[in-house]
Automatic annotation (TrEMBL):
Descriptive protein name: Deoxyribonuclease tatdn3 isoform X1
Organism of origin: Salmo salar (Atlantic salmon)
General function of this protein: Exhibits 3'-exonuclease activities and apurinic/apyrimidinic (AP) endonuclease (in vitro). Show preferential AP endonuclease activity on double-stranded DNA substrates and 3'- exonuclease activity on single-stranded DNA.
One annotated GO molecular function: metal ion binding
Xref: InterPro entries: Metal_Hydrolase, TatD-like
Binding site for a divalent metal cation 1: H12, H14, E107, D207
Residue runs in coiled coils: none
Keyword annotations from UniProtKB, A to Z: Hydrolase, Metal-binding
Name of encoding gene: tatdn3
Sequence similarity: Belongs to the metallo-dependent hydrolases superfamily. TatD-type hydrolase family.
């Protein structure tokens, strides 16, 4: 298998987020300088789809685009709401149009936080949107990138029903992958989990601009090296070993990113 020696794969980041709009070129420069070879760039709303494709065209060796309609729409706006089927419908043709370019379907899932989804109708509608996108991922033969909050049971049940492996606590035995963002460095509770999970099942992500090493400070893909060093430290191995293994894992999980090399 091809490997990208010395290069990181950030398995989950939001490069189309408005937080990056003003200085994206600098962010990309720092990303490259930090040795990141691939940014798996998830989306949450239709309005980001063309943008992530545009970034893929601007940085074809770096940006690996994903399409997804998140369970919570309108983040950071006054119109934040639980996802509706109308949020997905206009996106459907784009999944087809760009089926060769996208490397995964995400970020999709369920968010049953009472604040977002107080009624069962809202939860049902989230489930419909989630299930439809799982079907798309099967049709397009793509992996999925999952968001789950206050909905672990239903999320796992739905994934199983749809015959999808998931990045979930259910297990290393089932061939699932676990990925950790820089925020783990400030939460020692995760050290035990990192110790238990074999390196062959770990990926690195930043979830930038969220989940950075410092609270309330914008996260960037370059911070992936901090996660790498932390995992190396916890496991008592070299950062090189962590880079090598996690990049191999990312290539297994997202086979289409090989073409970016
Ligand atoms: Zn995310």
């Amino acid at each position: 298998m091809a490997t990208m020696d010395g290069g990181f794969v950030d398995c989950h980041c939001h490069i189309t987020a408005y937080e990056f709009a003003e200085d994206l070129e600098d962010v990309i420069k720092r990303t490259r300088e930090a040795g990141v070879k691939t940014l798996i760039s998830v989306t949450e709303e239709l309005s980001e789809f063309e943008r992530v494709i545009q970034l893929f065209k601007s940085y074809p060796d770096l940006v690996a685009p994903c399409f997804g309609i998140h369970p919570v729409q309108g983040c950071g706006s006054h119109d934040q709401h639980s996802v509706k089927i109308q949020d997905l419908e206009p996106a459907l043709p784009l999944f087809q149009k760009y089926r060769d370019d996208i490397v995964a379907v995400g970020e999709i899932g369920l968010d049953f936080t009472p604040w977002y989804a107080p009624t069962s109708q809202e939860r049902e509608e989230q489930l419909t949107v989630f299930t439809k996108q799982l079907q798309i991922s099967k049709d397009l033969d793509l992996p999925v990138n999952i968001h789950s909050r206050s909905a672990a049971k239903v999320t796992i049940a739905t994934l199983k029903e749809q015959g999808k492996p998931s990045v979930a606590m259910e297990g290393v035995q089932a061939g699932y992958f676990f990925s950790f963002p820089p925020a783990v460095c400030r939460n020692d509770q995760k050290a035990k989990l990192i110790k238990q999970i074999p390196l062959e099942h770990i990926c690195l992500e930043t979830d930038s601009p969220a989940l950075g090493p410092e609270k309330h400070v914008r996260n960037e893909p370059k911070n992936i090296s901090l996660v790498c060093e932390y995992i190396a430290h916890v496991k008592g191995i070299t950062p090189q070993m962590v880079i090598h293994a996690t990049t191999d894992n990312a290539l297994r999980l997202f086979p289409k990113i090989k073409r970016l090399e």
